[in-house]
Amino acid sequence: MTKTDSSTSSAKAELARLVAPVAGRLRLAGLLAAVSELLWAAQAALVALAIGGLLEPPVLLPIWEASAGFLALMALRALLDAAAQGLASRASTRLVATERQALLRAAARLDARASGLTPAELAALAGEKLALLGPFAARYSPAMMRSRIVPLALIAITLPFSWIAVLIFLIALPLIPIFMALIGIAAQEASERQMVQIGTLNGALVDRIAAVTDLRLIGAETRAGTDLADVFERLRARTMKVLAVAFLSSTVLELFSALGVALVAIYVGFNLLGEIPWGSWGAPLNAEAGIFLLMIAPTVFQPMRDLSAAWHDRAAALAVATELAAAKEVLAREGTLLGYGTPAPAPAPAALAWEGLNLRPAPGAAPIRFADGAIAPGEAVALSGPSGAGKTTLLAALAGLIRPDAGEIRWGETALDDESADAIRAAMGWLPQAPQFIAAPLAEAITLGRAGDLAAALKAARAEDIIAALPEGLATPLGDIGGGVSGGEARRLMLARAHHARASLILADEPTADLDAETAEAVMAGLMALRAKGAALLIASHDPTVIAACDRVITLEPGGLA
């Protein structure tokens, strides 16, 4: 088996696994659609009997009776089609929503060291890429069911009238799936390349947005715009390649369908004229049989035509399934944070202590052995040491954002584990070096929906002037990286969030790094205001001013064990 065959097999297996929860609904949708299409044979028979009798008396079925029966069957087919489309649509919506929720849930539980998937890659996969599973479920799966039932059933109905018409169907029909399979290989490869380029575009766009201020400062906007335009152009080329393959497949498959229908029409016409007296079980076709065959011939090929139209949906879904499986493997290798992400009441203030901690700064990295330590309620402690000593890693572990390889962390007498982590984190304020916000109006990003005095929190964090300068004030959405404010302003807004939450312990990672003296003073004032309210402070920093403002210092050494 070649590498391509192995990849295709894996993609098919993954896609089958994804569809399994809604496979029953999709089969029922396909079955209803197949029954609806087979009813066309009954409608064709009514038309053939009515018109054939007018051409060659006697009249076997009056026009008004045929019309009434035709309309009744048409109404029944409309109901069956509506039911089939509704089932397929709901199943596809459930499929996409379930996989998207599972992916986001897994990503949300990744620990602070996770680096396998960038936010842009995750957003692209959870957004437009997973959405491509919907058309596959809604269109391709029912079309496949119909293609397995309708042509064979109609061929069986045709057999009593003409063996040569059946022979034409049996020759023309297999050519369609053969060419579909050949074209499908190119379609899947084109779709996979397009999926990769979509992720590249999202990553490039996020990087440019995050660095827009720096780009302006160094005058690199034009270069950045040119680079981004190149990425857009590559995506355009990949998309056009996918469309070209899709159009090619439709053209080839329509050709075989049209040839099959044309050959049946030619045979019926010459048989009725007496030029081809054979092929109809001894006697020439009568008018009713000829009209019937002409009416159902296109329907024999219709399921295959619909399947070919949805063939690109299958190729796209296989590409998505491949990427989704790879993403799940990456997420499975990453560590998960402690807790379940459920709301929990914060415990009373208590000492935070750690003993025997072994932590890896990155997956696969050598563990760092940390000396035992503790921080009491209301105490301000500086966490110092050279870069790489594990300051950020220790803070993340104390917040339950990293699972220790060994050792124990306690809040008072309560061990930090999955059962207690959500409650303990509710008592903490987390100030990472790179501020993070939720994509919501600023008021909601600070309060997180909790009751409290927002104005007092902004004042304590010295963030009132930041709000006043924003175009929409507290209604301004900043985005997840705080776009629209400087780094120092973003940190003061995060301090306001800690003030509003009335946190018992603040874990701050390099809160004054890369800030000018005035901004750094404002950030430290906000931290000390939290301490004045009774909060304990554990601050990782190289800044001598920050270290001097603390009660004591915990010094970390490279390799651990201070």
TrEMBL record:
Domain called ABC transporter: residue spans? 352-562
The ABC transmembrane type-1 domain sits at: 28-316
List the GO molecular function terms. Answer: ATP binding
Keywords (alphabetical) are: ATP-binding, Membrane, Nucleotide-binding, Transmembrane, Transmembrane helix
Q: Does the keyword Transmembrane helix apply?
A: yes
Has keyword Nucleotide-binding?
yes
Regions that span the bilayer = 171-187, 242-269
The protein's superkingdom reads: Bacteria
InterPro entries per the record? AAA+_ATPase (IPR003593), ABC1_TM_dom (IPR011527), ABC1_TM_sf (IPR036640), ABC_transporter-like_ATP-bd (IPR003439), P-loop_NTPase (IPR027417), Type_1_exporter (IPR039421)
Its record classes its membrane topology as: Multi-pass membrane protein
Write down the PROSITE patterns for this protein, in alphabetical order: ABC_TM1F, ABC_TRANSPORTER_2
Cell compartments where the protein resides:
Cell membrane
Cited Pfam families? ABC_membrane, ABC_tran
Q: What is this protein called?
A: ATP-binding cassette domain-containing protein
From which organism does this entry originate? Rhodobacter lacus
